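The pair is quoted verbatim as follows:
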Amino acid sequence: MDFIEIYSDEQIGAITLNDDKRRNALSFALLEEFNEAVDELAGQKVRTIIIRANPGAKVWSAGLNIEELPENGGDPLNYHHPLEILMRKIQKIPIPVIGMISGSVWGGGCDLAFVCDILTGSPEASFAITPAKLGVSYNASGFIHFLNMVELNIAKEMFFTGEPIYAEQAKNLGILNHLLPTEQLEEFTFNLARKICQNSPLSIAVAKEQLNILGSARPLNPGIYERIEELRSKAYHSEDFKEGIKAFREKRKPRFRGE
């Protein structure tokens, strides 16, 4: 694999984001390998999976690859997008998934981190969701991932400002289960995985599915979903969306007009 590394030992599997050159941007190529890696580890019947970046990486993931976003009014993150497939896979797999966060997490990388079952982090960890800086719309499942992780007012601040939440605040908000000194993060996370592996895999699989069902049990009727999709369509057909992508490529501040 070119963008992902896989490791397994003692019933623990590890998936390492290995595209430091592109700040582990979630390109189609990386996501394809990521999906394959989860399937491979599941086939090995590991009892815990750890998702991590390379040691010392400043960025855990820069989010979706901006160069691959559609410019013709297409949905930038539809149901069949490989990131959506990966996140559903992580949620449905009957194995606990631990995100080990040792750098900054941006955009769709937050979505990926937030569907993990447990997050550990170092002081270098931060989380920023940046669609407003690009004029990009967000889908309903993405908003639910955030609302399952933080309170509504925190989600609003993150989406409205696009500014990072840093490690200490992330721990206080419950985003991070554990905040460790950088030099202790890996050992702590693998020890946590070993503790999980000592317990009944059937009991854990059943608990994970039940907790996910209950955690996502939000009473939304079809009319609400239709309105959400209408709002998303308005955003990704907008001039602001085109301007956001253009400004990113030209490395300048976007000039949004609300159109």
About this structure: The chain has one domain: 1-181+201-259. The chain has a mean pLDDT of 88. DSSP finds eleven helices and ten strands in the chain.
